């Protein structure tokens, strides 16, 4: 994390070592891979509550992500307040109406058709929690001076991926919801002007009758996502 005046490098012995032998590494990552294959993006949520402590632990895990120059250019707003969730849903659905009534091209709408999305976003009020992910365009020191952040989209993307993984490890489901341009969110969440909302994650437990799009189970095979040079 950036601190004004801390501009020199100081080496610290590696504080944690988690290495395994080859067999142990393979077994561990295969188990993790198989568990992650059970992660699904869900739109149908149970009314079961989720303790705040679980949500904050997941966000704390996300906050450990690597980032450009270790500036950690992110902020997470966790919302359970029904009135705030209702405002977010109302504003998001207004943007979605513009999107589906001509804002999106035919090709984009055709790509979304197998996913089954539409203007109505009940998950934004049904889910017990919404986590809004903010990206910080630049940082501000304690005395109000700006400093540059680096690789902001990449850094926030990594942290968000770690958050989604942590939520799955907690037995929760979520959905990557990205209304555009989401200009209403910083003000609603009391965030400064230099932070941009990039994603809303509805979070909770799946409803008993939850479904997912069949097409979502189609994943590219390994030979299409991996090239090995020996």
From TrEMBL:
<dbReference type="InterPro" id="IPR000415">
    <property type="entry name" value="Nitroreductase-like"/>
</dbReference>
<keyword id="KW-0288">FMN</keyword>
<keyword id="KW-0560">Oxidoreductase</keyword>
<feature type="domain" description="Nitroreductase">
    <location>
        <begin position="37"/>
        <end position="205"/>
    </location>
</feature>
<dbReference type="InterPro" id="IPR050627">
    <property type="entry name" value="Nitroreductase/BluB"/>
</dbReference>
<protein>
    <submittedName>
        <fullName>Nitroreductase family protein</fullName>
    </submittedName>
</protein>
<dbReference type="GO" id="GO:0016491">
    <property type="term" value="F:oxidoreductase activity"/>
</dbReference>
<keyword id="KW-0285">Flavoprotein</keyword>
<dbReference type="InterPro" id="IPR029479">
    <property type="entry name" value="Nitroreductase"/>
</dbReference>
<dbReference type="Pfam" id="PF00881">
    <property type="entry name" value="Nitroreductase"/>
</dbReference>
